[in-house]
Amino acid sequence: MKRMIRLVPAAGLVLAGILASGSGSPAAAEIPPSGETRIVIFHSNDVHGKIENFAKVAAILKKERASGAEVFYLCAGDNFTGNPVVDRFEPKGEPVLEIYNRLGLDALCLGNHEFDYGLDVLESFTARARFPVVCANARDDSGVLPHLRSSVVLTGRKGTKIVLFGLIQIEAGNGLPSTLPERVAGLRFEEPFLKASELKDLRGDAPLFIGLTHLGLGQDRKLAGQMPGLDAIIGGHSHTRVDPAATVNGVLVAQAGSDNRFLGRVDLVLRDGRVAEKKGCLIDLDREKKEDREIKRLIEEFNENPALARVLASAPFDITGKEALGSLMTDAWRRELGLDIAFQNNGGIRLRRLSRKITVKDVYALDPFENQVVVMIMTTDEIRNLIRISFEKGEGIDLQVSGLVYTVRIDAERRVQDVQLIGQDGRPLQEDRTYKVGFSSYIPSAYDFAHRDPGKSLGITTADALINYLEKRPRLSGYQNVQRARIRH
Amino acid sequence: MIIKVNGRTIELFAGASVGDAIRRHSREAWRNVRGKRAFVFDAWGNEIALDGALSEGDEIFVRSSGAGERS
Q1: Of A39, A217, A483, B34, which one has the greatest count of Cβ atoms within 10 A?
Q2: B14 touches A: beta carbon within 8 Å
Q3: CATH at residue B35
Q4: How confident is the model at residue A10 (pLDDT cuts 50, 70, 90)?
Q5: Nearest by CB to A459, which of B15, B30, B56?
C-alpha cells in the first residue's frame, strides 16, 4: 500500500466550515468545535478528456485547502476518449495526467476507458502519476501494470487516514471491462461484488473507509447494501448526476455526472475519530467564475495540440461524396476489426469531401459523433432485411457498405421488391451461413430491423477505428467512382 | 441487454449507452432529449447523460422539461 503524505505547511489556525449546503459552493471557513475534523472530498468521474473546467476545479481546490479543512481529491475513472485534444496528444492522454498531477489528485480508480490507448500507455500513465491508481478486482499476474494497486491508505495534511479501494465494472458475457479484449490482454478481472466481500475488513483502525468505483450507480447502490461498513462510495460509469448524494444502507453514494461539468463534493465531520456527519452535493462548474491562471494557461497550451494537424494518409485525389467516404469508413472498420461486412448510414458521414491529405482533425470532422462500432452475427436474410429497412427509412440508398455490394430492386411506386447481395468473391451471399457484421452504434439503435443476435459494442469509436486504419495504410487508392449500392427498377 | 425505458422493455446490444436506448425507444423522445426539451433519469430520479453506460436490467425514464410528464 502506498502512503500518501502531503508536505504542506500546517495552517496556523484550524479552520473549518459548516457542512456545505446543497448549492455546492465551498463552505465558508469557521473554527470547529474541539475534537472535530472537517474533511472535504472532491471527486470527478467520466471526464472523457473534457479538460476545460479543470481551471475552475483548481481554483476550488486551492480555496478549500487554504481554509484549513482536510481536503482530498479523487477520480472515479474514464478520463479518456471524448476529446481529440487529449486522445490524440502525444503521448496520448498526457493533458489529463499533467493536470491531475498539478491538481494534487489523491487517487484514481481505473475505468473501462482507461484502457482505450492500450496497456503500454496506461502503464506509462500509472508510472508517472503522482497519485495511486487503484483497482482491486484487476489481477495483474503477468506484470503488465506493475504500478496498479488494489487499495491505498491516503493520509491528509492533518494526518487523517482514508482506506480506499477501487473496483471496475465487468461485462456479464466475457468477464472483462467494456473495452476491446486485446486492450486488457494479460489482466484478469474478478467479479466486483465477490472481490468486495474480501475487502470488508480492510478499514483497520482508519476513521474513513471509501470505495472508489467505476461500476455505475445501480451497482454502487448494490455495493452499499453489501458493505455497510463503508463511509462512502464515490463512483462513475453511468454518468449520473447524484445531487445530493444518496444514502443507502448508511453509506453515502456519490457520482458527479460526466464530461467535467460538475465537481462532486463530500463533506464529512469526524468526531472522536468516527464519522459523525456526512453529506454530498455537486458543484456546477459552468456556474463557477474563478479559474486558476496556471491551469488555464496549461489547458490553452494543450488545446493547441499540433497532433490534430498530423497527416494520417494521402490519396491521389480528393475523396468525394457519401458513397466514397462511406466506403472508406466501412473498409476501415471491416479490415481493422476483422469483420465480414460493415455498414455506415449516410447521416453519420458529416463531410462531403476529404482532401488528398487526410489529417486527424479531418477524421473527427467526418465522424464527430463518438459512435461505437457494434458487431452482430447476422444471417443473409437479416442483412437483406436491414438494407430493405434502411432503404425505406431513407427513401433511397442510405447504407454505405464494405464487404459486399447490393442492389435494391424497386417497383414504380419505389416499393422494395427484393435486395440482391453479392459478396467479395462476386457470388451471392450464402443463405445458409452467418456473417460478422459491424456498424456504427447509431444503426442498431435507430433502425428497426430483425436480428436474433442483440449485438455487442466493441468498445472502440468509429472515428478511432478509422484513424487506426489510416495510420497503417498511409497511401489510399480506389475511392473514385465507387458504387457498392445500386437501385434497379 | 434488456432494459426498460418509461416502463417499456427493450433489447439493446451489449455496451449500449443511454442515448442508444432512447433512440431505440422512440424517435420523438430522442428528438426531445437532443433538443433539451426532455431529460433522462434513472430509477432513483437522478439525471443521466446520453453517453452514460447502461447495465442489464436498468430502468430509465424520459421526462419532459416542462410539467414533469414523461414523453
Answers
A1: A217
A2: yes
A3: 3.10.20.30
A4: very low
A5: B15
